[in-house]
Amino acid sequence: DDDFNPGQIMFAAPAFSVPEFGTNAVITLVRTNGRAGVVSVNVFTTGVSAQAGSDYIPVSGAVVFGDGETN
Predict the structure, then answer these.
(1) pLDDT number for residue 1
(2) If we measure between CA atoms, which residue out of 3, 5, 1, 2 comes closest to residue 39?
(3) Which distant-in-sequence residues (6+ apart) come within 8 Å of 16 by Cβ?
């Protein structure tokens, strides 16, 4: 029963991008297949064609989902 499982954290979409002169990326994570307890996932940014520091500000940290929280 999903009510008693911690679930899985995943991206809400398969890819995220920002236009050339965009200022912010909004990356959505969702919790599926359960919602019991507090769970967290570590996240960080990386550039494919962009350079950290000159093209974007690197970000890292933890995203925490509270008990019952799904997004």
Answers:
(1) 61
(2) 5
(3) 25, 26, 27
CA angle 43, 48, 50 (to 5 degrees): 100
- Distance of CA 53 to CAs 24, 49, 50, Å? 14, 13, 9
Tokens encoding 38: 């507090």
| Residues 6+ away with beta carbon under 8 Å from 42 | 60, 61, 62
10-58 pLDDT, tens per residue?
Answer: 999 998 888 888 888 889 999 999 999 999 999 998 888 888 998 889 9
Task: Extract the runs of DSSP E, i.e. beta strands, from the chain.
Answer: 8-11, 29-32, 39-44, 60-65
> Per DSSP, what are the bridge partners of residue 29?
11
